[in-house]
């Protein structure tokens, strides 16, 4: 199965999402700054043109029915001194009839008239160059012969654009330097911030199935600590699972060695027998050994299943106990044991139905196996406060005080009766632990044994 393609590293994603918006904002800032600079440059040019057209209009003074032009050469040189930023002007009277300035000055594209003699600003193209123009139209003459005069002053927009570029350069260059320094700091911060993850990766790489010790993160951000804690929980679960698997394999190998050796020995002796009766006896021993081995394997598998993590759900333990008692009744009758049930109609506990059934099966199986014929076994359910009790009690020979303390040990047997393997009650104790409960053994007077499974009640 092919591995999914790896995406961008976390470092690249962080740098991308941190630096890309910065670049976009820098470009937007540059465009905005250029537009603002153009606007300020246009206002500056408009103000200069307005002052120039008013000053020029004051140099042309009405004299009777004519005009007196008081425009000294020095003033003209001031207007035309910068060849790269020349100021073009024209005075015409009547409007459009050249009087002074540049005779090729285009006429305004619209009628200029302002009752308050305020200059009008507009754009035009002169000799293929964009220009900004301020124009004003003034009246002069007496009441009998009124006349009008038009004054136009133009300035190239190249100066405006140059001014805007210089302003943008002066503003954006420091911002670019600051952006470069900020990018370096962001890169260093991301690298330093991701250092605990690299440390975590190296520690995980050093872990093997033989060494699953917890990860130590003494100095790391809270998020990395949370990740390390989650990984430590996973390592703990994995370590417990491997330990359980190893213990299961060791137990299976140890416990199966003897019955398998006995089976091999009996089959070898059976192959040497010539008498049918002796051969039948050998085969009966082989059959008994095979049954014991099968029982041992089933118990080992049950033990391994109980050691796994379980999901608990509310179940009616009393109904389950009655059902298990009914299932074991035929075998109890065959064994000469009086099996009965006493207890609640409903008793809700958080549990796993399959595992609780396994625990009750083991308790009843042990009681029927070791209590003997003509005895009574009682499956009982009742509650004590917030605790639910599942108990199996018999009036058989019971156990001594020393044996009661070892009854839940693995592979420990108080009796040498054939058929058992010393795992039934160990499975019961493991199931109780998985259900956040306990298993206990008590002596019954005058004789007998009671195994009690204590579980919390469903809230």
| Unreliable residue runs | none
Count of DSSP-assigned helices? 9
Question: What would the average pLDDT be, to the nearest integer?
Answer: 78
Supply Rg.
Answer: 52 Å
> Main β-sheet, in a few words?
5 strands, antiparallel
Count of individual domains: 3
- Strand adjacency order, main sheet: 4-3-7-6-5
Distance between the termini: 46 Å
Secondary-structure element order, N to C: HEEHEEEEEHHHEHEEHEEHHEE
Domain Histidine kinase: 251-459
Pfam families: 2CSK_N (PF08521), HATPase_c (PF02518), HisKA (PF00512)
GO molecular function: phosphorelay sensor kinase activity
Keywords: Kinase, Membrane, Phosphoprotein, Transferase, Transmembrane, Transmembrane helix, Two-component regulatory system
Task: Describe the SSE topology.
Layout: H1 10-59, E1 60-63, E2 66-69, H2 73-79, E3 87-92, E4 98-101, E5 120-126, E6 129-140, E7 147-156, H3 158-205, H4 222-272, H5 276-306, E8 313-316, H6 317-334, E9 337-343, E10 348-351, H7 353-371, E11 375-384, E12 387-394, H8 401-404, H9 424-434, E13 438-443, E14 449-456
Parallel strand pairs: 9-11
Antiparallel strand pairs: 1-2, 3-4, 3-7, 5-6, 6-7, 8-10, 11-12, 12-14, 13-14
Keywords: Kinase, Membrane, Phosphoprotein, Transferase, Transmembrane, Transmembrane helix, Two-component regulatory system
Domain HAMP: 191-243
Protein name: histidine kinase
Give a brief description.
The chain is an alpha+beta fold. It has nine helices and 14 strands.
Describe the overall structure.
- This protein has helices at 10-59, 73-79, 158-205, 222-272, 276-306, 317-334, 353-371, 401-404, 424-434, and strands at 60-63, 66-69, 87-92, 98-101, 120-126, 129-140, 147-156, 313-316, 337-343, 348-351, 375-384, 387-394, 438-443, 449-456.
- By secondary structure, it is an alpha+beta fold.
- Strands 4-3-7-6-5 form a 5-stranded antiparallel beta sheet.
- It starts with 9 loop residues before the first helix and ends with a strand.
